[in-house]
Amino acid sequence: MLSLLCTICARGGSKGVKGKNLRPLLGKPMIAHSIAQARASGLFSQIAISSDSEEILAVGKEWGADVLVHRPDDLASDTAPKIPAIRHCLEQAEAILGQRFDIFVDLDATSPLRLPEDIVGAVDLLRSSGAPNVITGAKARRSPYFNLVEQTSDGTVKLSKTLETHITRRQDSPRCYDMNASIYAWNRDAFLSNPAVFYPETRLYEMPEDRSIDVDSELDFEMVSFLMARRGRN
């Protein structure tokens, strides 16, 4: 039987929405929703929280995290990329538990609209496809082949990507997706041999737009609060 680990990396600093990982959302801290979704998926033997904040780690433990990983300051700055922090969390969790996992899934604490079945679907795609990893996204509203433009150094604009055949409808362009930063699923060995988000064989699990908002601003938080409240009423 394959062993699966869930990682949730949440640093203490936040510029767009101050303290967003612990901000109350429908009566509990935002990070608690990701922990609950991981548990409800039924996939994981262990859930690890990584943070430079003692308060976040304490709240993570209170709401059901199994492993607490103290993230070094150099992996928690505003400019630090997330992949090294994810790798640190995976390696520390394995060291603490004395266990090697086959698959691990990182859930973004600021994407609480996902459902447990989204996590299950991403992992199912990872296993059935044999891909090194799976990312999640929603259908893009704009297409780089039709109505998404780039500005050049002289101020003129052009389509971001072109095809040999001119297209007149967005529907005729290749399928494009907005990454929603919600779920990242990796084959553990593939990740540790080359920690990355994109490989030649990377696959995408599609999620609907109303489960794909990542909280990066006050407006995002208001939209997520509204959608989650509406889901609760339904």
Automatic annotation (TrEMBL):
<dbReference type="InterPro" id="IPR003329">
    <property type="entry name" value="Cytidylyl_trans"/>
</dbReference>
<dbReference type="Pfam" id="PF02348">
    <property type="entry name" value="CTP_transf_3"/>
</dbReference>
<keyword id="KW-0808">Transferase</keyword>
<dbReference type="GO" id="GO:0008781">
    <property type="term" value="F:N-acylneuraminate cytidylyltransferase activity"/>
</dbReference>
<keyword id="KW-0548">Nucleotidyltransferase</keyword>
<protein>
    <submittedName>
        <fullName>N-acylneuraminate cytidylyltransferase</fullName>
    </submittedName>
</protein>
<dbReference type="InterPro" id="IPR050793">
    <property type="entry name" value="CMP-NeuNAc_synthase"/>
</dbReference>
<dbReference type="InterPro" id="IPR029044">
    <property type="entry name" value="Nucleotide-diphossugar_trans"/>
</dbReference>
